[in-house]
Amino acid sequence: MTSNSPSEKRLEELREQAWKDGVVPGKGVDVAGGPIPRKPGYYGQPVVKPPVWTWEIPIYFFVGGLSGMSAVIASAAVLFHHVDLARTAMWLAAIGVILSSVLLIMDLGRPHLFINMLRVFKHQSAMSMGVWILTFFGACVVPGLIALELHTLHLFTGAMDQLLRIAAGVLIFGSALFGTLLATYTGVLIGATAIPAWFLHRLLLPIHFGTAGLGSAAGLLELFGHRIAPLNAIGFFAAAVESALLVWLTIDKHGAADRAIHEHGSGWLIRVGEILTGPLALVLRLFGFVPFAAFAFLVGALVSRFGWIAVGKVSGSDPESVFAAERY
Amino acid sequence: MAEAHPVGFRWAMKAKERGATIIHVDPRFSRTSALADIWVPIRAGGDIAFLGGLVRHIIENELFFRDYVVHFTNASCILREDFRDAEEGATGVFSGWSGEQCGYDRKTWLYNGDGGLSFPERDLTLQHPRCVFQTLRRHFARYTPEMVEKICGIPPALFHKVADALVAASGPEKTAAICYALGWTQHSKGVQIIRTAAILQLLLGNIGRPGGGILALRGHASIQGSTDIPTLYDILPGYLPMPRGDGSEATLRDYLARHTKPTGLWHNFPAYFISLLKAYYGKNATAENDFGYNWVPKITTNHSFFEYLYDMADGKMEGMFIMGQNPAVAAANSRFERAALSKLKWLVVREMVEIEAAMFWRDSPEIEHGELRTEEIDTEVFFFPAAGHAEKEGAFTNTQRLLQWREKAVDPPGDCRSEAWFIHQLALRLIAKAKQSNDPLDEPLRALDWWYPEDQLGDPKMEAVLAEINGWYTAPQPNADGVVFGINREGNPHHGPQIDGYPRLKSDGSTASGGWIYSGVLGPDKINKAKSRNSKDYLGHGWGFAWPGDRRIIYNRASASPTGEPWSDRKKLIWWDRAQSKWTGVDNPDFPVEKSPEFRPTGNESGLDGIRGDAAFILQEDGLGWLYVASGLQDGPMPTHYEPLESPVHNALYSRDTNPAVHWFTRQENRFAPPGDPRFPFVLTTYRLTEHHTAGGMSRFLSHLAELQPELFAEMSPELAVELKIGNGDHISIVSLRGAIEARALVSRRIRPLRLNGKTVHQIAMPFHFGSAGPVKGGATNDLVPISGEPNVTIMEAKALTCNIVPGRLPRGPAFEDWLNEYVPKGGPPNLHPEQPPAGAPCARAGGGHGMEGKIDNR
Amino acid sequence: MIGEGIQSSNQRRHSFVQDHVEVGFFTDPTVCIGCKACEVACKEWNQVPDDGFTWSGNSYDNTGHLGASTWRHVMFLEQDCAKGNQIAGPMSLDQDPFRWIFLSDVCKHCEDAGCLEACPTGSIVRTEVGSVLVQNDVCNGCGYCVVSCPFGVIDRRPQPLPDAGGAFKCTFCYDRQKSGLVPACAKVCPTESIVFGRLDDLRARGAERVHQLQQSGYNDAQLYDPTETSVRGIHAFFLILGEPEAYGLPPKPQIPTIYLKSAWTAAFATAIASIITTLVAFAFFS
């Protein structure tokens, strides 16, 4: 179609008249593929596909993030002799890893074939990396927790106990390493896809998911009674970073490419989540309402995960977003 | 063609690749139009005006192929003084019309002089005022491009584009072909539409030449076969007319006398007919009993589908077999059809799925509306599961008269059986019963020679049937050369060697043939040519068998000049080899092989000997291509534009709107709107989609096809949608004088409003594949279509009618009747159209017949 | 070519799998008649279930788009420009052109395929003929391929359809090709709009066809084969009239693995920062 065609000229005339008079009376028929296409692309059909994942996945993001960062806190706790904190944190990590695995398996289209995830190790697939991260994390967390408990409960003595202590230490540090990756890789997972609203925020997403995981772990441990200054400090840090991310998200718009975030209801889920984890948690903590801050952070972290999946579904179904994203 | 014959259309695409121009004339822009070079939107029903306009253009501008026209057509033949054209007084009626007979006395249409049709007087200068050429010229004189625009809505600029392309593609060096299907046949003047195309092609010299001709694109599987070896009431295999019971053909001699022509191929009529009788009755048919002529059923009136449908509706029919048809959806006025079915006492349906015709008694729109109630329907329905096409053996004959054998791939599942099995098993039982009765009424059954061997499933061996159709020498010689299936069911010798073509057929009972036109398909070489798949040349020799005699292009004598050389080297097909004194070439000559181009009969010869050496059209008595049909058609020797029976406008050319000889089937349930009726202002035309097959029995029940087109829709122009405030996808109801259905609106620029004679006329187009059965359902478009009978073949006019469109869905249940009464008046006379005769009058029913001659005069 | 019978590359037997020859589809809408034989043949051969019975009102396209149960999809575009020199009724003579284009869409079998890279079970593999194949018995339906395809081809089949749970797309009739047969869609296409054959032959043919069309008045004919993007070309490529957006095709598709580097960098940075922050928090605030 050239820009000299009569239909283009007519379009110009219509625009002129609409500008002048505010309305153009006359023919305005929605015709199958007619001269004025009402819908972008091919009859408004999606260009890419929206994600098929359901509620299990955003909850897994939340649980996995919390669980992974909990192991990080556990290892710092071990280093700085907060044994009780370490135990709670490792219990959170262990429950978290089991829950995560169950959620992931439930979301599979063919759950009975879950073990096929371990057939290959592909660095170019964030999901493959994630599977192995989760596996190694679990392989460190569960034995690590057992070793820690056995040591703490003094069920063995002497060399055995020494062995357990060393094993616990190694495994807990291992959990921390894999755990911190578990919390952040999920951002890579959805950032490295063909969904415009996701890949345009591929830097923000790992930072957000990791920080949300850290803050969630600290907050939940605080809610379990570990009201100590380091956790408070971590809480502040997480809330501050989240606030900065909220500003970044709001400013860094990409027009039609990420209008799912900025012009659609699903975007509000993200923003509400980020307000809860960011400014609100920060203010609450500043005024000393630590449990409330922790709770707000946890709720916000969960809501935000749901928001990002929802935005993915909207963006994936929007042909214009794909076309617009190409210039970035 | 791309819609209904997608695989065949590839050849049109290949031609296009090599530079051919594809012109598509159709009321709507279909998938064919999308690939055509020129699309011509035409008002449904205006085809004769358009083609006639082309004829006039070619005549007036001297663009016709003169040598061809002078020598090969009857342009030069001189007509009688008392012939009156429809043009005279612009009445639209020819000489000899009788309203009481609802027909023409056609003696004034014949050639002048005593030579009859065989040896006419001719003026080869084409100047004689009463020669066919000048008559044709006068007849089409008013079919100007402006008139074409008035009637068809085709602007002169577009008309000239088509004319120029057609003329540029014709002549000695080039040829053009015309392909058509139901868009031409399903009209009240369908045969004449095709005739106009024939005139066009004859004038342009395109008949009998490679890349030329007129191709009827046959639709259903083996639909060509269904007239060749017919399931029609009025013709016997090979287009022999069914004998009449009115006393005029009481004996074999009377019958043969009437149908044997002095010259031309039909001179051997007795041989074809008697061989057929020998096939039917075997050794029971002898010269002494007139070869069993008395056992052949005689027709007493028009027994075609719509005639007996009315009898059915009046409770005069007890039972019916429906095989491979779905009249509850596919017949015109299908609403009336379904009601009529409920009057039968018994109904046998053979199908693969439970089609609407089999389940009308428990679920149909009428049951839903409460017009019919299951408890009140007495019809006993016997449903026999049928085998699919890959589960049985046999031949299809389709476009180009091509027989192609079909092998059986698998056995049918469960109780499913083929038609052949059913008829064969039924026949065995009926014949057995007849043999035990002594009723003289059963004599024909007892006399039938039902010899067919069968396989272990009980299917008759289809190649045995083909062998019988091909024909053989009747004296049993099971061990001779060239015998196929020489032993009958009882194990006794049955017949002699196969014959190799219809020229071998005799009228003394020494030959038998179940269908003379197919002779040669399974000859003494014992090769089933319908099975062969080894195409040797561009005409397809070696792939299947084209009747007659595997001639791929009939009348191919016309591809050479009167003196026997090809018109051009580029378009050579057959030619006269002087050295060997015979016709030879790329195709099998459709001409006596040894007749020289210089041969001239003296006037006393008969049969093919009476044909000149430069007369290509050997089926005709004068051997000429008929621009003017002196004998054989019911409604005129030349095509005349008549309006469809339901039309938004009057006839712009003549004072008569509609075809005078048409049968209106007048009845309260089958009313026609008068011209320009404001209650039904839109033209409706019907069509097929690629995704579905006819009444949907084989496509709506198959998920892969059903999901491609899951709902009935009506295509309309954006202009009409704006006028009626209908958006794309809206539910709408379409109503005609016969009934109402609902559909979705598909608004598209592919449908155009037309300006006819200063008035804007809107057309809408609908496919007809939907019904109330199966996984995807929809209204039956044929509920809207009236029953009518074209005078020659009694085909209904399904391609042009008028309707109204009402936004919104139809009401459910009994409320439907009240809704319908708002748009379709209940009472009043059944003949609303001013040219429609009242019930009981001539032309109100068919009462006539096909075949070569005139009508039956009773009723 | 039409009329070559069993000599055509769409019909004749081959040994591409055994010989490791890269194959492709070249789809040319200028000869497509929109018959949908390709859709039906694909479903018949591969026993693909129906994809819903919904009338769309979008011209004759009630299929919608490619998905787990639609591996060939014919598009129907009604546009107000001309197809070459076609005269589409009096509209064309009044300078108000119209055309109807049909194009059969299919999995692109990318040179660098997003779905293949994303698959965590190794179910999606590259075959000997260069096509991208989902091994159905391995796929556990994680759905990651679905969001990794820049063309929106592959999808997860929902319950209660047969074989539900896994991801499905065009297999390039790998099973047929192993036996020397051609893909079902190419075999049945009556006008050879879909051409199957050696990829390099097809690319040459496509270039020639575009040139030929442009000479005969099809000013907006172009090839859609995004070789300059990170997808690095597609094995099932198309000739299109007009712009890719009208067909729902992304003009510049990218394989999402190009986003991995920056994303992992952010992830690692966050991971390290989290560890450091935690240690510092415990060190300074204990």
Percentage of helical residues of chain B?
10-25%
- DSSP summary: helix tally of chain A: 12
Distance between the termini of chain A: 26 Å
Rg of chain B, Å, rounded: 27 Å
How are the elements arranged and paired?
The complex is a heterotrimer of chains A (328), B (859) and C (286).
Chain A: H1 6-21, H2 56-79, H3 83-107, H4 126-152, H5 158-191, H6 196-199, H7 204-223, H8 229-251, H9 259-262, H10 265-286, H11 290-316, H12 319-325
Helix pairs in contact in A: 2-3, 2-5, 2-7, 2-11, 3-4, 4-5, 5-7, 7-8, 7-11, 8-10, 10-11
Chain B: H1 6-17, E1 23-25, H2 31-35, E2 38-40, H3 47-60, H4 66-72, E3 97-98, E4 103-104, H5 132-139, H6 145-152, H7 156-168, E5 178-180, H8 182-185, H9 190-204, E6 214-216, H10 225-228, E7 235-236, E8 240-241, H11 252-259, H12 269-281, H13 305-313, E9 319-323, H14 327-330, H15 334-341, E10 346-351, H16 356-359, H17 365-369, E11 380-385, E12 394-398, E13 402-406, H18 419-436, H19 443-447, H20 462-470, E14 472-473, E15 511-512, E16 545-546, E17 574-577, E18 582-585, E19 682-687, H21 703-706, E20 713-716, H22 718-724, E21 731-736, E22 739-747, E23 754-756, E24 759-761, E25 763-767, E26 801-807, H23 815-823
Parallel strand pairs in B: 1-2, 5-6, 9-10, 10-11, 19-25, 20-22
Antiparallel strand pairs in B: 3-4, 7-8, 12-13, 13-16, 14-15, 17-18, 19-26, 21-22, 21-26, 23-24
Helix pairs in contact in B: 3-6, 3-9, 13-15
Chain C: H1 16-19, E1 23-27, H2 37-46, E2 72-79, E3 87-88, H3 90-93, E4 99-106, H4 114-118, E5 124-126, E6 132-134, E7 155-156, E8 167-168, H5 174-178, H6 184-188, E9 194-198, H7 199-215, E10 221-224, E11 236-241, H8 260-285
Parallel strand pairs in C: 1-11
Antiparallel strand pairs in C: 1-9, 2-4, 5-6, 7-8, 10-11
